[in-house]
Amino acid sequence: MQKLSNSIQLAHCLLKDRLNEAKIIVDATAGNGNDTLFLAQNALNNAQIYAFDIQKEAIENTKALLIKNKDNINLPLENISFIHDSHENIDNYIQTKIDIAIFNLGYLPGGDHKFTTKDDTTLKTIDKILNNLNINGYVAIVMYPGHEEGSKEYQSIKLFVKDLPKKSFTVGWYKMINHNFNAPALCWIEKVGEYA
Ligand SMILES: C[S@@+](CC[C@H](N)C(=O)[O-])C[C@H]1O[C@@H](n2cnc3c(N)ncnc32)[C@H](O)[C@@H]1O
Q1: 7 C-beta closer than 6 A to ligand 1
Q2: Distance of CA 167 from the midpoint of ligand 1 (Å)
Q3: d(CA 26, CA 99)
Q4: Molecular function terms in GO for this entry (predicted)?
Q5: In this structure, which residue's CA is closest to atom 20 in ligand 1?
Q6: Is ligand 1 within 6 A of the CB of residue 53?
Q7: Per residue, what are the HEC states of 131-160?
C-alpha cells in the first residue's frame, strides 16, 4: 500500500486518530460512499455522521455501501444521515459543533462532470465548517487540479487557507514534489484556537 502517493489514504491516516474522540463527523462529498464507510468503520459508536451529495444516485450508492457493511461499522446505521443536498446548506442540518470533516472534491470517476464541486460553494462550506469546528477538530480536503474546474478550485482553496490566522488554525498542504503538477493534493486544517 503506497500511502504517500495516495492523498485519500493519507487523509484517512490523519483523520483516524481524531475519530477516536469525534462526535460530529461530516463527509461533504459522499460520492460512492468510500469515505463515509471509512469514517463509520473508525468512529465511536455514539458518533453522528452526516454525508452530503448533490446527486441522488451518489446518496443511494453511499447508503447501499453502508447497509452492505452494516456488520463491519462501529456505529448504528441510524447514526448516519444521508443528505441529498449541497454541502453549502450544511447549517440547515447541523447546528452543533463539528469535530471532523472530509472533502473529496471533483466528480465521481466515470460520472457526469457537470456534478463536479465548484470553488465558490466549496469555499463557502469550508468557511462555515471552520467557524463551527471544535478546537482540535480536523478538516481534510482532497483536491484534483488535473481538470479545469479542479484546478480553479485548487488555486482558490490555496489562496483562502494560506491566510487563515495561525492562532486559530494549523494548515498543512501536501503535494508530491516529484510527481506531475496535476496529481491529487491534500490540504488539512486543524483548529487550534477560537476563530471569530
Ligand atoms: C470525488 S467524488 C467523492 C468521492 C466519495 N467521497 C467516495 O468515497 O466515493 C465528488 C462528489 O462530490 C459531489 N458534489 C459536487 N458538488 C457538491 C456539493 N455542492 N455538495 C455536495 N456534494 C457535491 C459529486 O456529486 C460527487 O459525487
Answers
A1: no
A2: 31
A3: 8
A4: methyltransferase activity
A5: 86
A6: yes
A7: HCEEEEEEEEEEECCCCHHHHHHHHHHHHH
Greatest CA separation for the chain? 44
Name the closest-CA residue to atom 16, ligand 1: 117
Q: Would you state the cell numbers that stand for residue 106, as one nine-digit string?
A: 471533483
pLDDT of residue 112: 85
List the grid coordinates of 75. Answer: 456505529
Number of domains in the chain: 1
pLDDT tens column, 33-60: 999 999 999 999 999 999 999 999 999 9
Q: How does pLDDT run across 104-160, given as a tens digit for each residue?
A: 999 998 888 889 999 999 999 999 999 999 999 999 999 999 999 999 999 999 999
How many angstroms separate the CA atoms of 108 and 87, rounded?
16
Q: Which three cell numbers stand for residue 180?
A: 506531475
**Would the CB of 86 count as within 6 Å of ligand 1?**
yes
The domain that holds 42 is classified in CATH as 3.40.50.150
Between CA 112 and CA 58 the distance in angstroms is 11
Does some domain include residue 36? yes
| Whole-number pLDDT of residue 1 | 65
Residue 178 falls inside a structural domain: yes
